[in-house]
Amino acid sequence: MLHLLVASMLSGGIASGVAGVNPQGVFLENRGQWNGEARYLMRSPNLDTWVTDDGLVYQFYKVEWVPNDPKADPYDTTYRFEGHSRVTGQAIRMRFAGSSGQAVHRGEALSTKYHYYIGKRDRWARGVQAYPEARIENLYPGVEAVIYADGTAPRYDLILAPGADPRQIRMQFEGQFGLRLSPEGSLRAATVFGDVSLGGLYAYQDLGGKQVRVPARFRINRDGTVGFELGKYDRSKPLVIDPIIQSRFIGGNNVDNATVISQLAGGPVVAGETYSPNFPASGVFTYTGAYDAYVIVYDNTWTPVWASFLGSSLDDFAGGVGYQPTTDGTNVWLAITVGNMADTDFDVNIGDGGGTDILAVEFLFDGSDVDDDIGIGSTANDYLTDMVMYIDGDDAARLQYTGYTFGADFPVGTADNFLLGFGGFRDAFVCRVNTSDDSLEFGLFLGGSQDDIANDMVLESVSGNSTTVVIGGRTASASFPHGNNSWGGDFKGASDGFVARIFFDPDNPFDPIAHLTHSTLAGGSSFDEVRGVAVTGSGDVYATGRTSSADFPTTTGAYDTTYNGSSDAFAFAVNSAFTSATYSTYIGAADFDVANGIALATGNTAIIGGETWSQQFPITSNADDSTFNGQSDAFLLRLAADGSGLEFSSFYGGAGVEMVNRILPLGGTSALVVGKTGSSSFPTTGGPAFAGGQDAFLMQADTPVGSVVLTGLRIEPNQGIGGAFSATGTVTLSGPAGAPTLVILSSDNGFVTVPLSVTVPAGQSEATFPVTTSNPPSRQIATITANLGVDSRMATVTVDPNILVSLTMAEPAVTGGQTGTGIVQLLAAAPPGGLVVNLSVDTAAVIVPPTVTVPAGSKTATFPVTTFPTHVSLEATIVASLNSFGQKAKIIVLPPVVFSTTVTPRQVQGGNGATFRVILSGQAPPGGYLVRLFSSHPNVASMPATVVVPAGATFVDVPVTTFPVQQSVDVTLSADRITRRSSNLLVTP
Question: Which of 622, 657, 827, 921 has the greatest count of CB atoms below 10 A from its CB?
Fold first, then answer.
């Protein structure tokens, strides 16, 4: 067998990457979501590798966001809707000339299910699986290709069966600017990103346990195809040909973002947008409309259960998620801004539609289908920035949207809405939809004569069918409606932030005066914007955002009352009537700082997150990371209840750009956080590796006061057999926690796992957590680390392998064609999920399955041993191995013997015929089975000297010829092969 390895032309404790957005290093099957020529897709940083029936397509690319207005504020995330993404790159197709292959997957599918609701229904693909490998069968006679991930880089092996001719392999490249062999023997393809190349080939054979090199090099044939020239090698042994990668980096951005977070009973739900691939033609390409919205549902271990993608051919962005309980489970609603509704199988059923519109889709509890959808929009562009969902007093599910629109005909109910309808460049809007009949129940424009947008919304209360929400945003309109006695006073600058309370009365659904109960501006003479809002049970409103105003209104005694320069984050809290502020403060340093999300912790202390470009951003001594890491860092902080100081503040980041987008409170001082990172060094405690360009992140963090420190970590027991024992970890604080205190946990070894965190309850100084183990190939010593702010403690756990102690055969010998039973036994009981034992056998006359699984909680498992008929006795050796531990057992395959004979009829008159049947103990082997025949009186009853039992048969009938006799003769008829068996025939006169 020839094994030919050809690499692709590619260069070389507080957070978790959002697995499943763009899964790396696995092969996603094509169920119609992509061009039919593509069978599988493997994603790598800046490279998509498509598997087709006759080869591979390498799609090198970079993704850029292009604003419509080149003067647009690059830090204004709401402006992301007002441009487009541009994907540029080059696709190089590698066909195997003359191939008749078929691409299939290899290995077991991963547990996560992916659903694609992109475009029209005939392109939807549900239950898409991901596999660790793919292969192309029947590439050439005796040749197949196995494609897999080498780290995050794609590679493939060409596997030649014995006797297959390597000269038939001809690779045809398309799409590159040129293809050449360099003097040192590497194969180089010219692209817009520079040369990508495969270096000199290294070929070898494993002979007697030693690696013996075989000469090998690329060859460009006269027809332009590429093949291989190989030196002499043993054609009865495997040969490995390994190209050395010598490629320059191919740059660009693979962009993913997480902008929405919520929580189901099982775990977090994250939504955002991700670059979506297009199957390319060969050569250089450029296209726009590259983002799709996604939603991922996780379990409580942060393992993705399912992921759904939703969108059109243009850019689509997530705006909100909601839940609707059903008898089968909890359905998930995802609301998005859809770039091109006409390109989807959904409709605008509220309004007229046109440009970008708003789409809400209800996915079944497992994401496997769409149960309902609602489209709303105007003939201009409409953008969703947030959505809340709730069940009202009639047990009906309602969706409430906010965002902004450029369309005066956006459906808000009547032309008599606020300010006599639409006013200005664009207006914020609020509306409510009944999911029972997809009807608009309420809506209003919120704005003045200029530019107005809403960024965030929080549900304050539900009473019967009446609801109250608070929204935050920005306005450039001096005529923006605000209370005469509101805290912020009148409009002051280029744009002011605002917060507004909206009440919906079902008895008066389209009376905007009744709906807008409270509002206030918040700003100075320059640019100001509210980006996040939160509300207490008593109606006090907390807001955060960013300001460029040196005269932003602050309060006496607040943490920071002086503008720091460039742009500062801010936070304020106002009473329920919006007439006075509990506090208002700047937050920042000399460079650009912006806050995007806010949530309320214990005692109505505000947890705030965002982005800072300031190395001197204020950080507290109990920070998770007190050092500025790169271009910009995400930050998370918690203000004192009166706004007078920081109880916690920390950087989170790496060498690139980071940003917190949304925060979800978890109780106490803990929160879930989503955002984006451009850093491979962003701190994580698990999940997938950084995928390149920009990745979404999901983070669980605590914002402790810092009055206690972490003093201890112990694991009991701290040694045992992997998978067969579990342990309990205990963290210890220096004293009782003043509030629920989150301790971050991590393990440096995949065979020992711990939760992401453990919470020490208020008033307690200790908390326990589970430690689980799995079976390793050899002894493993894992280090468990606990972190609380800058305090860290470590403990070790030793895990020994669960070895295979015996392999026995229930039947030491069987007749060929019969099935035996093998028994494997472990040292200890198998862990949850069971343990897989590998099996092999040294002769083709015996077949065993490739593996047998010892069930969870059991020490033994059985497997079938299939044998084939044989002419002679054979001894087969079966090997069972678990990691590096193996056991052997022998089974003897016996040839069949003559088991019995019969004669029919048992008495005949001389001269008449009879039939002698020879019956074997098993199936006759290939070529048949020769049996010798005998008659005690051949002159009375005769048979042939031999007979052959046909291959696969267990008996044969032999004609018996008799002769006339004068008196009755008892004739013994016999068959002989290893054993002799006889039957008697009475011949009468």
Answer: 622
Quote the pLDDT of residue 164: 84
Q: State residue 943 phi and psi, 5-degree precision.
A: -140, 165
Contact 212, 223 (CB under 8 A): no
Q: Which residue has the tokens 């909890």?
A: 330
What's the rounded Cα separation, in Å, for the pair 779 and 885?
12
DSSP state of 194: E
In 447-550 the beta strands, taken as DSSP E runs, fall at 452-463, 466-475, 496-504, 516-522, 528-535, 541-547
Token pair 């070929």 is found at 203
Lowest mean pLDDT among 7-16, 214-223, 597-606, 886-895: 7-16
Cα separations in angstroms, 207 against 214, 234, 235, 267, 302:
12, 9, 12, 53, 46
Give percent of the chain with pLDDT exceeding 70.
90
Phi, then psi, of 255 in degrees rounded to 5: -100, 125
Among 585, 639, 581, which residue's Cα sits nearest to residue 609? 639
Cα 28 to Cα 17: distance, rounded to the nearest angstrom: 19
Q: Mind listing the pLDDT tens digit for each residue in 758-775?
A: 988 887 889 999 999 988
Q: For the segment 155-202, what is each residue's pLDDT rounded down to a tens digit?
A: 888 888 888 888 898 989 999 898 888 877 778 888 887 787 766 677
Q: How many CB atoms lie within 10 A of CB 845?
A: 17
Cα distances (angstroms) measured from residue 745 to each of 76, 577, 675, 789, 790: 35, 43, 21, 12, 13
Say whether pLDDT at 618 is over 80.
yes
For residue 527, give every residue at least 6 positions away whose Cβ sits within 8 Å of its Cβ, in sequence order, or none: 73, 493, 494, 495, 547, 548, 549, 567
Q: Are 240 and 3 in contact (CB under 8 A)?
A: yes
DSSP letters for 325-377? E-SSSEEEEEEEEES-GGGSS----EE---SSEEEEEEE-TTSSSEEEEEEEE
d(CA 922, CA 898) in angstroms, rounded, equals 9
| Count of CA atoms in the C-beta half-sphere (13 A) of 435 | 28
Give the pairing type, strands 541-547 and 528-535: antiparallel
Q: Mean pLDDT, the chain, as a whole number?
A: 86
Decide if pLDDT at 913 tops 80.
Answer: yes
